[in-house]
Amino acid sequence: MGEYVGALDQGTTSTRFMVFNHSGQVVSAYQEEHKQIFPQPGWVEHDAAEIWDRSRLVIDKGLERGGLRPSDLVSVGITNQRETVVVWERSTGKPIHNAIVWQDTRTAGLCNELAAQGGPDRFRSQTGLPLATYFSGPKVSWLLDHLEGARSRAESGELLFGTIDSWELWNLTGGPSGGRHLTDVTNASRTLLMNLATLDWDDDLLGAVGVPRAMLPEIHPSSEIYGRAVGVLEGVPIAGILGDQQAALFGQVCFDVGEAKNTYGTGCFMLLNTGSDPVTSQNGLLTTVAYQVDGEPAIYALEGSIAIAGALVQWLRDNLEIIDSAAEVEALARSVADNGGVYFVPAFSGLFAPHWRSDARGVIAGLTRFATKGHLARAALEATAFQTREVLDAMNLDSGVELTSLKVDGGMVYNDLLMQFQADQLGVPVLRPVVAETTALGAACAAGLAVGYWDGFDDLKANWGLDRAWQPVTIGSQRDELYARWKKTVNRTLDWV
User: Fold this and answer.
1) pTM for the full model?
2) Across-strand partners of 242?
3) Which pLDDT tens digits describe the chain residue by residue (497 residues)?
4) Which of 92, 147, 160, 212 could form a disulfide with 155 if both were Cys (CB 3.0 to 4.6 A apart)?
5) Distance between CA atoms of 225 and 452, rounded to whole angstroms?
6) Do the Cβ atoms of 29 and 145 come closer than 8 Å?
7) Crossing angle, helix 373-399 and helix 310-318, to 10 degrees?
8) How far apart are the first and last CA of the chain?
9) Whose CA is closest to 306, among 348, 243, 258?
10) Residue 59 in contact with residue 69, Cβ under 8 Å?
11) d(C-alpha 314, C-alpha 80), whole Å
12) Which residues contact 376 (CB under 8 A, 6 or more apart)?
């Protein structure tokens, strides 16, 4: 029996493999970026074959770096960028097109057509989701309609569809030679095709969106043994699958109703555990499956998704070239005392929660001759905190649960200026755990639970440790004045397209 548990973390910009010990500490890690493909404005693609190549490479190098063999692992979990879709040939494993990424907006026309009968909330009662370009189902339908012969091949079972977790699992467990074609409840709940009540594909939804059942993976719990790997992880049970944000909730041990986490990555994703009953949002949030352990009922969450967070810092680096590396943004933002009246709403691909407006575009407001690149950097960081407050306000309204603290993770949580401003805007303490790699940790926890490596949730909670807490300092009118100006700027982004 091995001593460690692994996690394959396939994200929007990179793939990594991480190995954890029983106390949840990182033993080894290896990461590789993959290409971002932008065929035209609003379109975002990845090469799924490249992602699978990278996955094998990071597993190999991650084991090598830790001086480990596959037999040292009790199990491996998968976590993935959600809503990104791959369609591939069952017989060859070859993708028929690039993967269409969650940020891609090419399905706007199809979503509008679907919303023509019943509005943007047409499927919300079944799926917990509004009709938006974000979700997977319409992306699949688009591919079947735009690639010659694809729809008939899908109907006859020649083509398979999966989100990235399914693509990885199928390949890890043998691909064309017996690969397991399945997904977990968290990823399935982001397709617009799964019924939240039955946790199964819904014929009415499949018919309306236009996705043949023959190409769909089976839906399973997030923590169970799905199969054993061949090749690079020979013989290791693959035993956990969670979409990245649900994985972070799991890794942050938010197992009780009312516990919440916010992940500051490419986008920003805040999830609140609402227990075994789905809460329907009246305020622009998503109702989603948080996780399901084998043999237990599913646990649900409210989620606020923000499209652009860390990606805005990358934009300052790559497009404006006012910083050389993402890490420099904090010093630049600190070079000024405040935002100088400058506000930045990064609606680069529309606004996600709580607005759901694909017609919005980015706006920088309040510019004067006084404004410098320092003010721009500060406004960019503050945008993330303001967007998070908008989501939290909506969560409080929907759930009736007052948040007492917020657990945070992701790349931006090492930015002290942002974390302090976040605590000030929310009026609650912001808590960063010792192991900030909570997405990979969550997948590892799910995989470890399934094979009895950890006994249960209490074991996992005992592993969570606090690294740093930020207490709110600025509250009252100063805080609210800044937020009111931000809301005013948001209104300027609407009806642009």
Assistant:
1) 0.88
2) 79
3) 579 999 999 999 899 999 999 999 999 999 999 999 999 988 999 999 999 999 999 999 999 999 999 999 999 999 999 999 999 999 999 999 999 999 899 999 999 999 999 999 999 999 999 999 989 999 999 999 999 999 999 999 999 999 999 999 999 999 999 999 999 999 999 999 999 999 999 999 999 999 999 999 999 999 999 999 999 999 999 999 999 999 999 999 999 888 889 999 888 889 999 999 899 888 889 999 999 998 999 999 999 888 888 889 999 999 999 999 888 999 999 999 999 999 999 998 888 888 888 889 999 999 999 999 999 999 999 999 999 999 988 888 888 877 888 999 988 999 999 999 999 999 989 999 998 889 999 999 999 999 999 999 999 999 999 999 999 997 677 889 999 999 999 999 998 87
4) 212
5) 11
6) no
7) 160
8) 58
9) 348
10) no
11) 21
12) 316, 320, 322, 342, 344, 364
* Encoded tokens for 324: 């050389």
Pull the structure tokens for residue 468: 């740093």
Q: For residue 112, how many other CB atoms are within 10 A of its CB?
A: 13
Residue 199, CA atoms < 13 Å, CB-side half-sphere: 20
Residues in CB range of 191: below 8 A, 6 or more apart: 83, 135, 136, 137, 163
Place of tokens 């095709």: 193
